[in-house]
Amino acid sequence: MNHLGVMVILREGICPGINEEFIKALQSEDIKTVEDFVSCNPEELAQKCSLSYKALVAVRRLLLAQYTAFPVSGADLYEELLSSTAILSTGNPSLDKLLDSGLYTGEITELTGSPGSGKTQVCFSVAVNISHQLKQTVFYIDTKSGMCANRLLQMLQTKTPNMEEQMEALQKIKVFRVFDVFSLLACLQHLRSNGLQKASVGGGSVKALMVDSVSAVLSSLLGGKQNEGMSLLIQVAGELKMIAKDFNIAILVTNHVTRDGNGHLKAGLGQSWSHVPRTRVLLQRVEDAETSSLRTATLTKSSRQACHLVEEFDLCHWSEERRTSISGKRKLEERSKP
Amino acid sequence: MEFRNYCAKINEMTARVRMAENGAQLVSRLEGRQSLRDIEPNIFPVDCGPGQGDVVEFHGLEGTGKTETLYHLITRCIMPVQSGGLEVAVVFVDTDYHFDMLRLVSVLEGRLAEDSKEGDCSENEPEERVRSCLRRLSVVHCNSSVQLLLTLHYLENTFSSQASLCLLVIDSISSFYWVDRFNGGESTVCQEANLRKCAELLDRLRRNYGIVIFATTHAIMRNYGSDSGVSEVPGSSSSSRRWRLADSATDFDKPYLCKAWQRIVTHRMLFTKSHVSKQVFSTACTSIMTKGVKRCSFHVMEGGIKFVCDK
Questions:
Q1: Ranges for the RecA family profile domain (chain A) (predicted)?
Q2: Using a CB-CB distance cutoff of 8 angstroms, which residues of chain B are in contact with residue A308?
Q3: A265 vs chain B: nearest CA distance in angstroms?
Q4: Beta bridge partners of A103
């Protein structure tokens, strides 16, 4: 089924009972697509064309069965979710607290922040945690050439001195490089149609997908009067959501920030993208901190926790718990660790 | 000659009888659906709750509480009467994979727990009570406007045969706006064709079966040059002006979906988030049947919505 919303044209063989004469008879009434056909009343149609009422009703029923989405009972859906949803810890206790234990499969989580706020570093740390600690495959879609295998190796070396373990974890992080929206769409569609199950390494399944960053490929399409840009943005959103839901994968995307009318920071890519992620975290540098690796994460959108929760953490000490909040400046000085 | 016409007429009439409804469908159509007028007096105008055949549009920016309000209303519908619910069935059409079952279940559990404190602690464990409520809910995912149209046609059978199905929720009906606009090329008629057909079908469904329809629309169009009150936006129809006069001025309130949809909406609820106090959300509800605006504020807590109403 074409998910782009383009009309479905009535063709011979599209369903049993539709042959050439059938289609010709319908065309004489100016009915060319499935949706036109289904919208017509079979009684009236039987009177206008030379087709039998029974045949029309039968074909209508078959087409509907083929092309509609079927309702699922809420109870069954809930059972399925309970058994299939997993929460992936990010490895950082402060961030996990903000995200209500971690990244949830089946959902898109967004990291926003200005350049240098640490979004890519956070993605690396989370990927390393998932591949090494949780032993699951991670798909990393890099649109900015920010992926640096050396940095990943460095992070792994702090977790374990064992070379084999490090290599195994590195192999579980699969990197895809795309630089424009069409290759991003092609990559996502490929993953969805056959890549995901086959590409998982070492028997583990794929549980996480990261896109760093979506705004790098989408922001240049927006603005002006072109409709194509918005349509492509919605298509990317649709692909990501389908992958998250159908394969039970946690998706992490990064986005830039802009300022709104009141001077507050808000996520980039505008209103239409803002509906897409289920959870959004804003990363910022800590002003006047003695170590430049300190960051604050603010929860700006969540369906599980109250918004505007803030947690602080150190990019260089990822698994450490920071027991301070942003107001405890004195405690910050006490905690300087090598 | 007249006799032949008479025969033709009889044939036509009997032909119609042949294709008529079966017993269950007839009963469900005549009996009428249960009324949802008392579903939530806090947010709907007095005596103007959603009756049979009403269409309520939930409009607002992202993060303003539309989906949370929907979950609140759905919970009220699917809970049993002893717990304060309406015990009716709901169909939820999800167009952008937005539906959060886990959140709905937290809200449901919260409401069931608070109602069981007063009433008797029935034999059923909480899990079973949640499941029996969830059986009254059906969820459908659509990923294009064509699929939405065809699914609504398919659902017509469900509406005609199931009399307890009183509510259709579409979250959201504006998801395919940009994709349709691009695929329709230059002609607005082509762009809006699918949504127009959906709106016409929804109109027929609500009139024939008396179901209530709740649909959310995202506020994505900027309202350039709008004052509080009269709008100067070129091309705004009289129907959009009627809504705008009652609404509080917002930057993103321009109605942009096709006219066929705007014509069937009977209640419009505008959601906003307070700038002053970050945790407060507000709704402003207008309806074509009453004058004036019903305003309400609420917080979103872990167990669902908590109203802070002033009227």
A1: 84-257
A2: 278
A3: 14
A4: A88
**Whose CA is closest to A185, among A211, A157, A164?**
A211
Contact indicator for B179, B96 with CB cutoff of 8 Å: no
* Nearest residue on chain B to A62, alpha-carbon basis: B154
Residues of chain A with CATH 1.10.150.20: 1-73
Give me the amino acid identity at A13: G
For residue A181, the number of C-alpha atoms closer than 13 Å in the C-beta half-sphere is: 20
Between positions 112 and 151 of B, the ones with CB within 8 A of A are 130-147, 149-151
Q: Which helix (H) or strand (E) holds A229?
A: helix A227-247
Contacts of B219 in chain A (CB under 8 A): 271
The separation between the first and the last C-alpha atoms of chain B, rounded to the nearest angstrom, is 69
Which CATH class name applies to A85-314? alpha beta
Q: Which residue has 């942009």 as its token pair? A: B256
Q: Which of B216, B254, B223, B225 is nearest to B237 (CA)?
A: B254
| A5 → closest Cβ in B15, B78, B146 | B146
DSSP 3-state of A261: coil
Measured CA angle at A333 (ends A330, A337), to 5 deg: 145
Of the candidates B298, B302, B299, which has an alpha carbon nearest to the alpha carbon of residue B42?
A: B298
The single-letter code of the amino acid at B282 is S
Residue whose tokens read 């901190």? A289
The ipTM value here is 0.80
CA-nearest of A136, A168, A175 to A153 is A168
Cα Rg of chain B, angstroms: 21
Count Cα neighbours of A58 within 13 Å in the Cβ-side half-sphere.
Answer: 10
Token output for A87 = 């929460």
For A309-328, how does the pLDDT look when each residue is reduced to its tens digit (9 = 90+)? Answer: 888 888 888 877 665 544 44
Question: What CA–CA distance (Å, rounded) separates B280 from B297?
Answer: 7
Where in the sequence of chain A do the CATH 3.40.50.300 domains occur? 85-314
The domain A1-73 having CATH identifier 3.40.50.970: the answer here is no
How confident is the model over A67-90, as pLDDT tens digits?
Answer: 888 899 999 999 988 888 889 999
How close does chain B come to A292, measured CA to CA in Å? Answer: 30
* Sheet containing A294-301: order of strands: A173-177, A137-142, A206-212, A250-255, A108-113, A279-285, A294-301, A310-314
Given this model, what pLDDT does residue B27 score? 61
pLDDT tens, A93-108?
999 999 989 999 999 9
B155 — contact with chain A (CB < 8 Å)?
Answer: yes
